[in-house]
Input
Amino acid sequence: MCSVVPLSSRAAPTYFFPFVKGQENLNENLNLKQAILSEVVQINNGSAFHLSAGKLLKNINGNNVVMFGFNGQVPGPIIKAKQGSAIFVNFTNNLDMASSIHWHGLKLNNKSDDV
Output
């Protein structure tokens, strides 16, 4: 028989990336915001969009898991622009480690793709 235990919003999180430096103290992440689902953002030609990376909590199968996301979303917003548009993405890294962006749907040289 399986019993269901309600998950407290203050439950200690576990880690999706347990090997990452600086994640040894589980209690430091109790005040993280819950991740929201990805939103679609339409960017007009010549417009700028701000993208920010940071730690978030996501509930997976009853466990609060610390994950990395963009703009409070996991995996992050879906950015759409019309073909031929020039858009600007300003990126802020709020993680305690280096970060990069891998763009889907854009043809880039391998050295510029951040994979």
Summary: Residues 54 and 95 are 5 Å apart (CA to CA). The chain is about 0% helix and 30% strand.
